[in-house]
Amino acid sequence: MLTIRVNGREHQVEAPGDMPLLWVLRDLVGLKGTKFGCGIAQCGACTVHLDGRPLRSCVMPVGSVGKAEITTIEAIGETAVGQRVQQAWLALEVVQCGYCQSGQIMSAAALLARNPAPDDLAIDSAMSGNICRCGTYARIRAAIKEASSA
Ligand code: FES
Ligand code: FES
Question: Residue 147's pLDDT band (boundaries 50, 70, 90)?
């Protein structure tokens, strides 16, 4: 039995220490907003925050999380930055199929938390690990700028 902190609450989970955090979040904690894409840290669909930093949960063994605070897409709107990002995403109608977008929002919120006014280079660098097969990159960049100026 492991205890992890997710979105401000403790959860006890029956999981081997080498189970990927993504599996635990979706199948044991029941938070389905974080998506499985590639499973090998290449697409960013599974991005969550660990103590505020973006992390690919598909390759993070749950046993290595320890006491760190995990934040998922379900709770990112409870932070001021996360709320601005989500509002910008809606205002600019960023989403197409939506599959990659929880990961995109988590990476964008982590970027704006550490750099409130990123330039194009900083945005592209922070978002380069999040792949969108629908090609919403231009709207994502515009929404990050919208959220940064709010
Ligand atoms: S599912 Fe984790 S990076 Fe693709
Ligand atoms: S919105 Fe479809 S994969 Fe990004």
Answer: very high
